[in-house]
């Protein structure tokens, strides 16, 4: 296991003509973590992955994987990584086993016992031709080829697409095991719930720019609760907006919804002084809301 | 919807058709300007037999020669080839791309889709024919060549008819089977066999009438550029086209559409049968995927087998005995035979077995055969994996990009070797069966040079594929270059003052030393090998430098 960053980028930039797909991306992903890479479609997630894999070359800036330069030492790097591309395609005429043998041969062998174990856990059929498999079952072959060499870094671009919920669970366990083993998973996704479940940290990318990197736990504590208040008469929303920690106030007659971060007491006090409160519920915001908040802020 | 599908397909395909037609017009321009400057007296003494074979009228003049040589042979084959590629891709192509279901998700029938594809074959072939007609009129005017008595319109109309005929044949096979490669294979086989039958059968009295059984006869048999439109012949082609259209409609409606399911091949059955399981599993399974080059060479086996078989049996074994049939007739005419006419077909003295083999087998067919297998691998090796989105996965393994290029090149060489062995064995057997006593070492030398020429074009396709990452660009560029080189080599050799230019075509280093008579020319072989190695080197550099394409 390496103590060097699993992925490190410095001002990584990629332009396609006038399109700025990546802009000055500075990122460090550490061994022993599952790093979620979040962003909407077209934000630059795949471009970032293809750049660090040396499939495409950066316009400026540099990147390293496990301390090795992604361009100069790309072949050496690939001995230590597993990769699941987004929109996975494989050789339709080969069976799952042939496909895995092909990639195993390119890597100089594989522990077939471990492959069988993975196939078992994901309920994958290795005997059928890849072209005859449904997209979810094909995805399983793609996952196995990435995991089978027990790489130090797994780079996966939207890897859960097509998997049924049970297999998704198993796949999430597999990712946690990799991190527990001191290795690293770099998981690009727009499925927030999945990232929320498995990731230690998330990076949020938007229009090619990294707008935040946060601990998932910290992100959650930082943000924020959603508070629902019900009063015995219609109220004026303007009263709530100036209170410390209050955001996104929505008023509908007796009913007020607001986002809130900070201690509860001042809020309750302010409310009780003015109105008669019938009911109050609060819940922790999930990643989705946080994510949307980030985007709204960046948008503003 | 009809017009929507037509418009989309037209938009996807018009460039290929236009580039094909314009390339031919350029070649026509080059050909006619060379013919204008040479002494045509040699042609006036030509025996009728040869004039008919080469499509040269009795009162041969510059115009007739240029139209006959460029439009009637290369032109018609190219137009028909383009139509075949449209016909094959029409139904099977949409099924393969998985877009057929999407298309039929709209409230229109399968017949509707088929008809719009058919209309497109007609429209696009019409576009090509229109450009050729325009070129056929404008070029002589530019060069101040008198074309009185040449029926350009009639020739182009016949070309249009034969092209649409083959396009619809491919459409019918594609509609019945849903297999694009089968549609291409069947139609190209019909085209090539009938092209050669029309050239060869009239030479043999007893079977001369059999030529009427071949579609190509109804294109060129009446010599439309000299005699004008033969409505009877056009009617035969039109009737065939209508029959194919009807068959296509029935075919596409009667079967299940192909989904992602690949079906079960013979190899799959053998892999499951307990008797053969062990061996076949090893060959089709673990051996096949043991190296990149073996996996690549294991693809396109069907085409490799067909090409090897045709070169072995039809162009190898059969040609020898056939020579003995027509031997006597030819020898007496040998003196009158102008090499200029035959230069386009590889040159050679038809009165000797070597010359006959050179014209029939080695001149054009052998290079084409090698090119089919080498260009197929060369164009798809890199760009094909990118288009199918497997290149990223392949290169996520610890292999260098240069290794991938070199392994793919190795697969190309292996395929070329298989064809070379088949061709060599076929010609040797043909010589034995015909009692021709040809020199075996010289045959080997000629096959080797032919293979090297094929590899040069394969490496050109590889280099384009490596540089731009587009299969189609690689195929078109290579075929375009091959056409230009072959025709330039044929013409420039007898253009006063321009002979030296042939040194600049790779084709010159193939047959110009008459290897069937003189044995191996190591200098020429070295030039071809050098070109091949150089182009592969360029491919390595280009592929290493660029961004991989994410989609085709």
Polypeptide structure, described:
- The complex is a heterodimer of chains A (300) and B (552).
- With 300 residues, chain A is an alpha/beta fold.
- Chain A has two domains: 212 residues, P-loop containing nucleotide triphosphate hydrolases (Rossmann fold, 3-Layer(aba) Sandwich); 61 residues, Alpha-Beta Plaits.
- Chain A is built from ten helices and 14 strands.
- In chain A, the strands form three sheets. Chain A has a six-stranded mixed beta sheet, with helices on both faces. In chain A, strands 2-1-4-5 form a four-stranded antiparallel beta sheet.
- In chain A, β9 and β10 form a beta hairpin.
- Chain B contains 27 helices and no strands.
- Chain B is globular and about 65 Å long.
- Chain B has 552 residues and is an all-alpha fold.
- Chain B has three domains: 256 residues, no CATH class; 28 residues, no CATH class; 254 residues, no CATH class.
Question: Concise description?
Answer:
The complex is a heterodimer of chains A (300) and B (552). Chain A is an alpha/beta fold and 300 residues long. In chain A, 34% of the residues lie in helices and 30% in strands.
Number of helices of chain B: 27
Sheet with most strands: strand arrangement of chain A = 6-7-8-3-9-10
**Individual helix count of chain A:** 10
User: Can you give the helix content of chain A as a percent range?
Assistant: 25-40%
Low-confidence stretches of chain B: 332-337
In the CATH scheme, the class of the largest domain in chain A would be: Alpha Beta
Query: Beta-strand level of the residues of chain A, as a percent range?
Result: 25-35%
Structural class of chain A: alpha/beta
Could you report the average pLDDT of chain B, rounded to the nearest whole number? 84
Uncertain runs of chain A: none
Integer tally of domains of chain B: 3
Biggest β-sheet strands, sense, barrel of chain A:
6 strands, mixed
Full CATH superfamily name of the largest domain in chain A: P-loop containing nucleotide triphosphate hydrolases
Quaternary structure state of the chains depicted: heterodimer
**CATH-scheme architecture of the largest domain in chain A:** 3-Layer(aba) Sandwich
Radius of gyration of chain A: 23 Å
Give the CA-based shape of chain A. elongated
Into which percentage range does the β-strand content of chain B fall? under 5%
Q: Mean pLDDT of chain A, rounded to whole units?
A: 88
């Amino acid at each position: 296991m390496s103590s060097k960053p699993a992925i490190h980028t410095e001002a990584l930039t990629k332009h396609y003509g006038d399109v700025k797909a990546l802009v000055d991306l500075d990122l460090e992903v550490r061994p022993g973590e599952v790093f979620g890479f979040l962003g909407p479609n077209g934000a630059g997630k795949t471009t970032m992955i293809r750049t660090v894999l040396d499939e495409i070359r950066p316009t400026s800036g540099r990147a390293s994987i496990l301390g090795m330069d992604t361009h100069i030492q790309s072949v050496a790097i690939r001995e230590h990584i597993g990769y699941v591309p987004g929109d996975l395609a494989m050789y339709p005429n080969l069976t799952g086993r042939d496909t895995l043998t092909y990639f195993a041969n390119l890597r100089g062998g594989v522990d077939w016992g471990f492959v069988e174990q993975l196939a078992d856990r994901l309920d994958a059929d290795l005997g059928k031709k890849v072209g005859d498999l449904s997209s979810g079952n094909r995805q399983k072959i793609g996952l196995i080829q990435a995991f089978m060499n027990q790489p130090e870094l797994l780079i996966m671009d939207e890897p859960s697409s097509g998997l049924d919920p049970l297999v998704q669970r198993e796949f999430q366990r597999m990712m946690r095991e990799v991190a527990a083993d001191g290795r690293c998973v770099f998981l690009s996704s727009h499925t927030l719930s999945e990232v929320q479940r498995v990731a230690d940290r998330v990076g949020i990318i938007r229009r090619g720019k990294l707008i935040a990197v946060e601990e998932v736990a910290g992100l959650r504590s930082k943000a924020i609760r959603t508070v629902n208040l019900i009063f015995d008469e219609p109220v004026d929303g303007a009263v709530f907006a100036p209170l410390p920690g209050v955001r996104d106030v929505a008023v509908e007659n007796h009913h007020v919804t607001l986002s809130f971060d900070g201690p509860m007491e001042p809020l309750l006090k302010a409310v009780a002084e003015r109105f008669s409160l019938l009911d109050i519920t609060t819940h922790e915001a999930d990643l989705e809301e946080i994510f949307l908040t980030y985007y709204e802020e960046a948008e503003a | 919807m009809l017009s929507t599908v037509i418009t989309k397909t037209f938009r996807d395909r018009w460039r290929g058709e236009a580039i094909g037609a314009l390339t031919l017009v350029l070649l026509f321009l080059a050909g006619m300007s060379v013919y204008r400057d040479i002494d045509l007296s040699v042609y006036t003494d030509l025996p009728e037999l040869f004039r008919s074979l080469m499509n040269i009228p009795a009162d041969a003049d510059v115009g007739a020669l240029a139209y006959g040589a460029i439009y009637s042979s290369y032109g018609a084959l190219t137009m028909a080839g383009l139509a075949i590629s449209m016909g094959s891709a029409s139904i099977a192509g949409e099924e393969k791309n998985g877009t057929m279901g999407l298309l039929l998700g709209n409230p229109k029938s399968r017949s509707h889709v088929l008809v719009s594809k058919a209309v497109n074959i007609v429209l696009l072939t019409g576009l090509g024919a229109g450009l050729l007609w325009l070129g056929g009129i404008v070029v002589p005017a530019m060069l101040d060549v008198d074309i009185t008595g040449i029926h350009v319109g009639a020739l182009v109309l016949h070309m249009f008819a034969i092209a649409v005929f083959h396009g619809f044949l491919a459409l019918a096979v594609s509609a019945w089977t849903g297999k694009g490669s089968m549609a291409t294979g069947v139609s190209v086989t019909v085209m090539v066999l009938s092209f050669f039958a029309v050239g060869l059968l009239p030479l043999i009295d007893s079977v001369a009438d059999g030529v009427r059984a071949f579609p190509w006869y109804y294109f060129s048999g009446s010599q439309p550029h000299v005699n004008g439109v033969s409505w009877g012949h056009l009617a035969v082609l039109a009737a065939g086209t209508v029959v194919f259209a009807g068959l296509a409609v029935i075919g596409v409606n009667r079967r299940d559409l192909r989904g992602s399911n690949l079906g079960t091949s013979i190899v799959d059955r053998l892999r499951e049968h307990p008797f053969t399981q062990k061996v076949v599993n090893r060959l089709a399974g673990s051996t096949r995927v043991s190296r990149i080059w073996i996996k690549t060479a294991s693809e396109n086996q069907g085409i490799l087998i067909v090409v090897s078989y045709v070169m072995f049996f039809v162009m190898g074994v059969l040609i020898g005995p056939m020579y003995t049939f027509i031997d006597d007739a030819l020898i007496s005419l040998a003196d009158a035979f102008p090499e200029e006419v035959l230069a386009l077909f590889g040159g050679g003295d038809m009165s000797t077995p070597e010359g006959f083999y050179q014209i029939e087998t080695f001149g054009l067919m052998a290079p084409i055969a090698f090119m089919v297998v080498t260009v197929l691998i060369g164009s798809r090796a890199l760009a094909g994996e990118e288009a199918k989105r497997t290149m990223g996965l392949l290169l996520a393994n610890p292999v260098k990009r240069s290794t991938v290029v070199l392994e793919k090149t190795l697969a190309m060489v292996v395929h070329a070797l298989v064809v070379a062995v088949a061709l060599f064995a076929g010609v040797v057997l043909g010589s034995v069966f015909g009692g021709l006593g040809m020199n075996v070492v010289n045959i080997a030398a000629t096959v080797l040079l032919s293979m090297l020429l094929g590899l040069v074009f394969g490496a050109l396709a590889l280099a384009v594929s490596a540089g731009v990452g587009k299969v189609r660009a690689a195929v078109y560029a290579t075929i375009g270059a091959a056409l230009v080189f072959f025709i330039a080599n044929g013409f420039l050799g007898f253009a006063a003052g321009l002979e030296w230019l042939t040194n600049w075509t790779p084709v010159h280093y193939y047959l110009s030393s008459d290897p069937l008579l003189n044995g191996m020319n190591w200098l020429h072989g070295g030039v071809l090998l050098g070109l091949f190695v150089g182009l592969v080197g360029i491919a390595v550099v280009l592929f290493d430098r660029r961004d991989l394409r994410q989609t085709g």
